Amino acid sequence: MTWGPFGVKGKNVIVTGGAVGIGRGIVDRFIEGGANVLLADLDGDQADAAASKLAGSPGRAVAMTVDVSHDGAGTKMVERCVAEFGSVDVLVNNAGIYPQIPMVDMTSEMFDRVYRINLRGLAFASQAAAKQMIAQGAGGVIVNISSIDAFRPSMVGLAAYDASKGGVTMFTKNLALELAPHGIRVIAIAPGGIRTEGVSKPMEGSGMTPQQQDEMIRAFIERIPMKRMGEPDDIATVAVFLASSGAGYITGTTIVVDGGALLT
After folding, report:
1. Among 52, 68, 220, 240, which lies 20 to 30 A Cα-Cα from 23?
2. Three-state DSSP class for residue 126
3. Parallel, antiparallel, or unpaired for β 36-41 and 12-16?
């Protein structure tokens, strides 16, 4: 909590998809820094369990069950954050899905769900947070979790996901332009391959055996200059930095955190 210009003590934060994986890593780092976090997730049981484990930490965690694809989800999260902590200072749009389905096999229902969560839900959560931040009059920060797939496809079957993340990257730029006069910064983080509980989920239903899946992951790691998958904390520390005053002149850009994967 003595992080100088990189401190987040006393900030009130919403993290979507915060119960596991990258989201949980982000929650943990904010809580460690003394921020209060509304831990919003589709899986209410996992959200409750995560919040319980963080009891007694420097910051306070409150769990909320929410599907960001639903109309009004952003408004509900903002209202809950204000009710619990008094304000919304930071929004981290982390919730996302990434089913690996070739476009020739993609249903319109699944395509729409990818977009409703990854882009539409993110956009309207940002809208709700921005309105609250403007009303508060003290600025704020919105961090969107994009992907290196916004810049280059990593594998067949992620056309819908890749397009949604490309949208996140451009949405970040335009919203940053709109909100800069209000002192609200909007930044995206583009993770590369991150080792999480769900790292193999996109390959479920792909027809690949577990051995083939392992080989694909090994081949992916071999192409990374740093020769390792990232960890959730690699993204979490960047998210906390971007929310701090140390990043006070950064807005409208995407920070790539990929171990150099896009270089190869």
Report:
1. 220
2. helix
3. parallel
| Amino acid present at 152 | R
**Predicted local distance difference test score (pLDDT) of residue 53:** 97
* From 98, 115, 161, 249, active-site residue: 161
Amino acid identity, residue 179? L
The per-residue pLDDT for 160 is 98
Range of the domain at 23: 8-259
pLDDT of residue 219: 86
Domain count, the chain: 1
- Cα(172)–Cα(145) distance, integer angstroms: 10
CATH number at residue 87: 3.40.50.720
pLDDT digits (tens, 9 = 90+) for 168-219: 999 999 999 999 999 999 999 999 999 987 554 555 555 667 788 788 888 8
Q: What is the pLDDT of residues 235-259, one digit of tens each?
A: 999 999 999 999 999 999 999 999 9
Q: Kindly report the number of other CB atoms within 10 A of residue 223's CB atom.
A: 14
Average pLDDT over residues 109-134: 98
pLDDT of residue 31: 98
Amino acid symbol at 198: G
- 249 flagged as catalytic: no
In angstroms, the CA 95 to CA 124 distance is 13
Distance CA 153, CA 57 (A): 39
Residue 91 included in any domain? yes
Axis crossing angle, helix 73-85 with helix 122-136, rounded to the nearest 10? 40
Pick from 30, 32, 28, 39: which is nearest to 11 by CA? 30
Q: Which of 214, 97, 108, 205 is nearest to 147 (CA)?
A: 97
* Element spanning 82, H or E: helix 73-85
